[in-house]
Design goal:
40% of the residues lie in helices and 17% in strands. By secondary structure, it is of the alpha/beta class. It has one domain: Aminopeptidase (3-Layer(aba) Sandwich), CATH 3.40.630. The radius of gyration is 20 Å and the shape is globular. The structure holds zinc ion. Zinc ion binds next to loops.
């Protein structure tokens, strides 16, 4: 007899906690994202020449997302004689049927096997550590996954980790090999819109409006920059950038509006042995993460 009021109180408490959690968007934590970069860099280069580091990174992404997402698949492929794996995690909202209400967020998880921009010639044949170029995009997506698991978005969201982005101009290979394969391998996957994040952790974050994105997906550029403006995300520059070959291009060429959020002009450690965690900042990651969070939740 004494138990009943206690049970009612507990139930009421639980109800109020859950409704409070549902009423506002969970916050993106830049420190969590920074830790995700450190974890990846500690695995070593994520290149075809370092299969151990690559497998450890793949396991890390998979193990992080498996309990959070509705579905996760690894898609192996061979292209130009190279073996790669794209990783695809879905946060399904059954109410958002079809692809009309489906958002894709992507990043490349491979890193560059050479450091051809390094001023020290002896280091140009070494792989880059890939903290910003490779690590940062993955880190933002993994922290967003935590938010999506706390509060389910109204739309279905796909997080896609592309392999073999950064083989461009090596033995005449193009950039974005994995993303091109993904678009070819999944002809029925046509999200309504998407964003690629690449090199988004720099202390002096500077993301202008990448030119292919602006030309081929102007409405989406407008949408993202108006969110950035409302959030006072100062790393987003309302200026036209240059044309950059990245994982968004295969989508744009297939008629899917996908834009590229990428630091430009490239930092001086880009494609060098100095692409390390010291250049990264939790606050920059948080700016990008909060803009993407608002993009998904609103
Ligand atoms: Zn690169």
């Amino acid at each position: 007899m004494q138990l009943k009021p206690v049970i009612i109180c507990v139930v009421l408490l639980l109800l109020s906690v859950s409704s409070a959690a549902e009423s506002k968007s969970p916050l993106f934590n830049g420190e969590n994202a920074l830790t995700h970069i450190k974890t990846q860099v500690a695995f070593g280069p994520r290149t075809i020449d370092n299969s151990e580091g690559k497998q450890a990174t793949l396991d890390f992404i998979h193990q992080t997302l498996e309990p959070l997402s509705s579905k996760i698949t690894v898609q192996p492929f061979t292209v130009q004689g190279l073996n790669g794996k794209n990783i695809w995690a879905t946060f399904m909202n059954p109410k958002a049927m079809g692809t009309a209400n489906r958002i894709m967020l992507g990043a490349h998880w491979d890193t560059r096997p050479i450091s051809e921009q390094d001023p020290d010639h002896s280091k140009q044949t070494l792989p880059t550590p890939g903290a910003n170029d490779g690590g940062s995009g993955v880190a933002v997506l993994l922290e967003l996954a935590r938010l999506f698991s706390i509060r389910k978005p109204e739309v279905t969201v796909d997080l896609i980790f592309f392999d073999l982005e950064d083989m461009g101009n090596i033995k005449n290979l193009p950039f974005a090999l994995g993303a091109q394969v993904f678009v070819d391998q999944n002809p029925f996957y046509r999200p309504s819109k998407g964003v690629i994040v690449d090199m988004v952790c720099d202390k002096n974050l500077r993301i202008p409006q990448e030119r292919y994105s602006k030309k081929q997906a102007p409405l989406l550029i407008k949408e993202i920059w108006s969110i950035a403006e409302a959030q006072n995300a100062t790393g987003f520059y309302k200026q036209q950038g240059t044309y950059i070959q990245d994982d968004h291009l295969p989508f744009l060429n297939a008629g899917i509006p996908v834009i590229d959020l990428i630091h430009y002009p490239f930092p001086d450690y880009w494609h060098t042995s100095r692409d390390t965690i010291e250049n990264c900042d939790a606050e920059s990651l948080e700016q990008v993460g909060n803009v993407l969070s608002a993009f998904v939740y609103n």
